[in-house]
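To the wet lab folks,

You asked to see what we're planning to order before we commit. Fair enough. Below is the target structure as tokens, and below that is the sequence we designed to fit it. If anything looks off to you, flag it before the synthesis order goes out.
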């Protein structure tokens, strides 16, 4: 459901009510942003550092949900800005008198920074460094004196360092700890699994959210969660084990339909067990008392086994094996194969240069915010660009209206910095509340803040200059317009292609998950869930794409079938890998049966990799057709003279059924494509 169609028949915008509704942590996030903005204003005004508006916007841009991620982001901003200033100062020595050289450097810095932001884990650090570098080399157009340009570049570093320090200080004292949020994520998964078993309304949508976007946030959080953690090591391992087991349980229910055939009484009993587990997880302690009787499974079916895994993670005395979260490689898997990363940087550089040429050609520096805007609003697909343009224009008008109202009604009666801080804090709280919503409205909150800051924080004190406010707002609108034109005409990434790219990423993660030699299978399952959710999110934006409403219905049907097929196949693979007695069964199987099983799983993995290339157009249909067959574990065992113990008979039957289910899922996907 898109933003244009997400309203009910009675005409009331319930979707907006849902987007603005509170959730645990939203008020604290908005309050932290408001306090950090107030501190930034106080420091910038006292030290007379220019570009206070950009500094306050960086607070909202860099603040994260937890303390560790926020502190790391703040440190990255300081380091990125410092590196940018150093390189920019060196570049100015050789380009001060050469306009062409300065323009070339601006483009090179922008392309490099945005490429690294898109293709590596640096993210905002790289884009901020590119922004600072590009802005530094353009300062000579304003102040054609090298010494003053260097001083201005140092002011730029202060403009970045002040908000970075502010968010670090506020996060250190007021932000929730990452391990607490990770535990909450696991509890939410457990509670949603119980809701699925009870058949509660809205449980499916909640499960997709937790398996997709929320899982992505949890993975990001794990990268920095333990940097400032000094607690019990086993407590950390227990949380990670709880995250793994709760994800597998929820995925098996939501993707594989593991509880579809359960009797109501059985489903209710399992849901009640999960309710108790969720309560125990809330009380998880760093040093639990020892317990000598490990939890036992009531039976050996998959669902009970997964529930048992979750129960074990919260049981006193449980010692998890996993010692640390996975490390993400610096470059994304497709960093040098996917041309969209470089094109992303080139398109941003083109838009920034056009804006730069406009305000320098017109000698109208007041609208230089057009170029600044380009570095903070760059997007990918055409539909997403148009969608965010709508949000930005609405947010810009709201923020500008609040700014003009403040200039006319509040600024004339302000007498000290405290009043200015309170005004900035109040609007920052509202903007951060909106920005903390889903992608349907979050960009509107960012733009409200940006426009308001640019209107009211253009001097070292209360501003009454409506001309400056007008020019800066016009610059924002110009920057958004130029970005939209560039991103919809130069190498446009259509929604359908963006969906295919996300599905291909999901298929590759699933291929690695299916590989029998995979050591980080749980991580690959999470990557698949994130990619699938991204494909669905981008697909919702089709209505914003020019001509998107009249898209080929058959193409829409194929994409929906691929999403559904990949989801079902993922459920089948998870069920096979997490089946009870799976490890013991592998050790029992005779060599011919193990070879047959391994060959089948590798065939599935190879087919999924070829299928991902086919989605992206990198291979033909002929070389990615499914030619495999179930591993025939039962047949291989029967052909050998090994007697099957009674304890393994049921496990063998489940393994064979799982292989046939996987085979059926692959065939369904093959036909859909």
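Sequence we intend to order:
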């Amino acid at each position: 459901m898109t933003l244009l169609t997400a309203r009910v028949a009675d005409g009331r915008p319930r979707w907006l009510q849902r987007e603005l509704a509170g959730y645990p942590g939203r008020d604290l996030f908005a309050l932290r942003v408001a306090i950090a903005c107030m501190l930034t204003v106080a420091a910038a005004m006292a030290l007379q550092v220019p570009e206070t508006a950009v500094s306050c916007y960086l607070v909202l841009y860099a603040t994260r949900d937890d303390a560790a991620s926020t502190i790391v982001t703040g440190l990255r901003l300081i380091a990125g800005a410092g590196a940018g200033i150093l390189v920019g100062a060196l570049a100015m020595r050789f380009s001060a008198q050469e306009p062409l050289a300065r323009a070339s450097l601006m483009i090179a810095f922008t392309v490099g920074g945005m490429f690294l932001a898109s293709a590596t884990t640096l993210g905002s650090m790289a884009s901020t460094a590119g922004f600072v570098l590009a802005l530094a080399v353009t300062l000579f157009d304003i102040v054609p004196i090298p010494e003053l340009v260097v001083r201005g570049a140092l002011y730029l570093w202060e403009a970045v360092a002040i908000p970075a320090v502010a968010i670090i200080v506020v996060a250190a004292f007021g932000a929730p700890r990452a391990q607490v949020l990770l535990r909450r994520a696991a509890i939410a998964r457990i509670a949603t699994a119980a809701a699925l078993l009870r058949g509660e309304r809205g449980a499916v949508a909640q499960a997709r959210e937790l398996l997709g976007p929320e899982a992505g946030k949890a993975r990001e959080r794990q990268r920095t969660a333990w940097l400032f953690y000094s607690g019990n090591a086993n407590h950390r391992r227990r949380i990670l084990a709880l995250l793994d087991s709760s994800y597998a349980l929820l995925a098996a229910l939501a993707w594989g339909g593991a509880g579809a055939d359960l009797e109501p009484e059985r489903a209710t009993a399992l849901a009640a067990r999960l309710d108790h587990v969720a309560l125990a997880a809330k009380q998880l302690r760093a040093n639990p008392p020892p317990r000598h009787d490990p939890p036992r499974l009531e039976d050996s079916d998959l669902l009970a086994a997964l529930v048992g895994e979750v129960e074990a993670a919260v049981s006193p005395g449980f010692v998890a094996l996993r010692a640390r979260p996975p490390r993400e490689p610096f470059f994304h898997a497709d960093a040098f194969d996917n041309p969209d990363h470089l094109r992303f940087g080139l398109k941003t550089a083109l838009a920034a240069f056009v804006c730069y040429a406009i305000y320098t050609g017109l000698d109208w520096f007041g609208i230089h915010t057009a170029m600044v805007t380009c570095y903070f609003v760059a997007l990918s697909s055409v539909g997403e660009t148009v969608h965010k343009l709508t949000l930005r224009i609405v947010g810009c008008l709201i923020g500008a209206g609040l700014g003009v109202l403040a200039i006319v009604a509040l600024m004339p009666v302000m007498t000290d910095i405290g009043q200015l801080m309170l005004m900035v804090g109040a609007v920052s709280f509202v903007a951060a509340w909106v920005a903390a919503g889903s992608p349907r409205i979050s960009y509107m909150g960012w733009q409200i803040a940006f426009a308001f800051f640019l209107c009211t924080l253009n001097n070292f004190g209360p501003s009454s200059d409506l001309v400056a406010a007008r020019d800066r707002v016009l610059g924002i609108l110009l920057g958004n317009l130029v970005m939209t034109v560039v991103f919809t005409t130069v190498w446009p990434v259509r929604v359908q292609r963006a969906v295919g790219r996300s599905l291909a990423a999901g298929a590759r993660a699933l291929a690695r998950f299916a590989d029998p030699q995979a050591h980080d299978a749980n991580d690959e399952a999470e990557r698949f869930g994130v990619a699938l959710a991204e494909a669905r999110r981008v697909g919702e934006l089709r209505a914003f794409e020019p001509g998107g409403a009249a898209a080929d219905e058959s193409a829409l049907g194929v994409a929906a079938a691929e999403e559904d097929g990949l989801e079902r196949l993922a459920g089948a693979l998870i069920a096979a890998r997490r089946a009870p007695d799976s490890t013991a069964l592998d050790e029992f199987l005779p060599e011919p049966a193990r070879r047959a099983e391994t060959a089948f799983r590798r065939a599935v993995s190879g087919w999924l990799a070829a299928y991902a290339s086919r989605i992206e157009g990198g291979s033909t249909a002929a070389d990615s057709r499914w030619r495999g067959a179930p591993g025939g574990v039962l047949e291989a065992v029967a052909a050998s003279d090994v007697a099957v113990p009674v304890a393994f008979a049921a496990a063998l039957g489940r393994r064979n059924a799982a292989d046939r289910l996987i085979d059926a899922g692959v065939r369904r996907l093959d036909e859909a494509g």
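Structural context that might help your review: The chain has 26 helices and no strands. Residues 1-12, 286-300, 618-622 have pLDDT under 50 and may be disordered.

Thanks,
Computational group
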